[in-house]
Specification:
about 150 residues, DUF1569, DinB/YfiT-like, DinB family protein
Length: about 150
């Protein structure tokens, strides 16, 4: 799996984000394109410590999520219409151009933290290495860009 810390993968994601259009329709799922670009900012903000997840996840669910942790960064694409955390649900109307610009800035900020040695503890999955954070973020962005055909 590619990592968002790799220059080539980073440029690929930026190129694909630029190809998105305001009238793009999803191949699966419930979000429109503006909601998707808003949603994609959130995991990056969690990774950089700029957003905290508030969903109360019980002990049993945390144990189950830890079993799924490798799926977050392995080489297999995520399945279509996979569910997300309540903290990452996006409802409402957003300005596509503004949200896409914000996502690009957030992707760049994350990419520039490649040598960060103090990653936050993920509240659901626990500790991730730099490599795992980079793969997981690439995989998430790739999932949603494929959802909208880019």
């Amino acid at each position: 799996m590619q990592t968002l810390f790799d220059q080539k993968a980073h440029q690929e994601i930026l190129r694909r984000l630029e190809q998105l259009t305001e009238d793009a329709t999803p191949k699966w799922g419930k979000m429109n394109v503006s909601q998707m670009v808003k949603h994609c900012q959130m995991p990056l903000l969690v990774a950089t410590g700029k957003m905290e997840l508030t969903e109360n996840v019980g002990v049993l669910k945390k144990l189950v999520l830890k079993l799924y942790k490798p799926i977050m960064y392995n080489d297999k694409p995520w399945p279509e219409s996979v569910t997300t955390s309540k903290d990452f649900l996006v409802i409402g109307t957003f300005d596509f151009e503004n949200e896409r610009a914000q996502l690009i800035a957030t992707v760049n900020d994350f990419h520039n933290k490649a040598y960060n040695i103090h990653w936050p503890h993920h509240p659901y999955f626990g500790k991730f290495s730099t490599d795992q954070w980079g793969k997981m973020q690439f995989k998430h962005l790739d999932h949603h860009l494929r959802q909208f055909g880019v």
